[in-house]
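Minutes, project huddle
Topic: does the predicted pose make sense with tryptophanyl-5'AMP bound?
PN asked that the exact inputs be recorded in the minutes so nobody has to dig through chat later. Recorded below.
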Amino acid sequence: MDTVVSGIRSTGQLHLGNYFGALRNFIKMQHDARCFFFIADYHSLTTHPDPRILHDNVRNVLAEYLAAGLDPSVATIYVQSDVPQVAELSMLLSMHAPVGELERTASFKDKIRKHADNVNAGLLTYPVLMAADILQHKADKVPVGKDQEQHLEMTRVYARRFNSFYGVEYFSEPAAYNFGTELVKVPGLDGSGKMGKSEGNGLYLSDSDADIRKKVMRAVSDSGPTAPGEPMSEPVANLFTLLKLVSAPSTVEHFAASYNACEIRYGDLKKQLAEDIVAVVAPIRERIEAVKADEAFLRRVTADGAEKARESSAKTLAQVREIMGIRRF
Ligand code: TYM
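Predicted holo structure (tokens), as shared on screen:
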């Protein structure tokens, strides 16, 4: 049976990028694999969240995991910082992570460009901690969105490097995974780039139906095709990408045909897109508040999950220490 590991940072509300890139895969995979899904609160510390809201952010993501259909009776659901063994494994792996390689990581370069005032060591070693998250459970598959592809490649490099340096066949190489197809990049509604919390272009699992309709109707498009076969502008291609994720194939075909015939009315496309997004989000949103309020349930889920995850992590850590020559007197 495959082992599946993945996490989402505790930045508050999950958006459709998190859902289609990651969470939907977690839900689909949980019955057929040994699954570990966590909330990456250590990773979220790189941006210095207010300590008074960190816990609520973890609670929100946990509630959204459960409301979306993650089942703690089949998957191990835990909070990253409840398994401090991962920090030790990360430290051990960092001994084989050249700084130059870390400095060349696309996500690091992007962060230092956007936040030159906060280039901390945690940001630099972010991919090492991520590799420790994955390797501690000896994962085979890691469901993630397209933006995490390079981090997965680095995880494989660390696994290979560890094996070859110590002359062992210990870690296998985990693969980035999206159920049945290629990794996805969910676009935002602002016409360019991916959907993200800090981009302010997102649709959230906690959004009301009215919010969703309002945001979709305001999404950037263009002035319409003028000649058949004309290539699509990026904003319109993004609307079609969203449509493909949420709508029936016949709906996508209908709007593609009207685009190609230069007869498309973006207002109609957006109305349909908004309704199809509402159909995905509303049932999840309706469960979030009830789950969030059930303190005893959240405590039970995270306590059970932490225990199982610590057991799996501690086993790996003991073997890694042994391989690296750390022994008890
Ligand atoms: P994070 O918290 O930024 O995002 C969580 C997951 O959501 C996916 N995602 C997207 N997918 C498609 N389109 C988008 N617009 C979009 N935005 C976000 C991400 O690809 C990711 O799968 N480093 C990770 C968290 C992490 C992790 C791990 C993941 C820590 N340790 C170990 C897997 C395994 C992150 O920052 O994701």
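Observations noted during the meeting:
- Strands lie at 3-9, 34-40, 76-79, 141-143, 175-177.
- Residues 295-324 form the longest helix (30 residues).
No decisions taken; revisit at the next huddle.
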